[in-house]
Amino acid sequence: MNADTAFLRLLGERVRRLRAGSGRSRRTLAATSGLSERYIAQLETGRGNVSVLLLRRLAHALDVPVQLLLTDEPVDSQDFAHAADLLRQLDPGRLAAARALLAQRFAAPPPVERRGRLALIGLRGAGKTTLGTAAAARLDVPFIELDRQVETAAGVPLSAIFELYGQEGYRHYERASLERLLDEHERFVIATGGSIVADAATFEVLLARCFTVWLRASPDEHMERVIAQGDLRPMAGNTEAMADLRRILAERDALYRRADVTISTSGRSVAESTQALLNALANASPE
Q1: Where do the domains of the chain lie?
Q2: Angstrom distance (rounded) from CA 253 to CA 157
Q3: How far, CA to CA in Å, does 174 sit from each of 34, 198, 216, 282?
Q4: CATH code for residues 109-282
Q5: How far is CA 80 from the centre of its chain?
Q6: Which fold, 3-85?
Q7: Of the four listed, 104, 137, 157, 181, which is most buried by Cβ atoms within 10 Å?
Q8: Is pLDDT of 164 > 70?
Q9: Which of 121-135, 210-224, 271-285 has the least mean pLDDT?
Q10: Residue 279 burial by CB count (10 A; 0-12/13-18/19+): exposed, middle or buried?
Q11: Which of 95 and 239 is assigned the larger pLDDT?
């Protein structure tokens, strides 16, 4: 059987199942689509040769997107078609929320199965590197900073990546670096960049494959810690740096809250925060 014949058979079987699932006879479908009953019969038995316009009319009559008929994947569920149609009607914000709910409910293994890979998310100054290093030592696993992996992959510092390739280039290296680490390591502690939550696809991979912890602090402490590290850039020439920081935290709050656990490092010593992190990991249990 050649590829064209196989596809026509798959298409015919898909049309037949969708029609049967909707409770329609061939005659009813023919009347709705404007196609002949004979043509539909030929199509369903894998002997049709459908044009794009006719296929579009048939899809409309079946109340499914035309893509569902054309896909090479063996997806024949009426429920799938209706779910896809519902998702297609959502605005971008609600679509992202729906995808997140589906991933959280059906895609990610329970936390206990992801404990070997501990991922820390949050803004700069939350303590990701400090606590990540301490936790990795206690767990006897590698500590990895994702941004350093990005620099290694690109062969240039982060600043140069953004200058040369822009945000899109950085996202490409970030996703590739994360997937490589997941392939290479069964266990690690990883500190991610603060904006990883803004890239939906990469963040979904992180949530599905790692036990994720949001390290949070007050805006004042975020700023104090960054400056204490010798980085004065947040304040350089920007009198509204704190307002910007608060805005970013507010915008990302819902995304950061998708982590398995949230730990506040405000008013805590490194030892106390590290222990809270390890306790959260130990207490992870199946959903």
Answers
A1: 3-85, 109-282
A2: 28
A3: 50, 12, 22, 28
A4: 3.40.50.300
A5: 20
A6: 434 Repressor (Amino-terminal Domain) (1.10.260)
A7: 181
A8: yes
A9: 210-224
A10: exposed
A11: 95
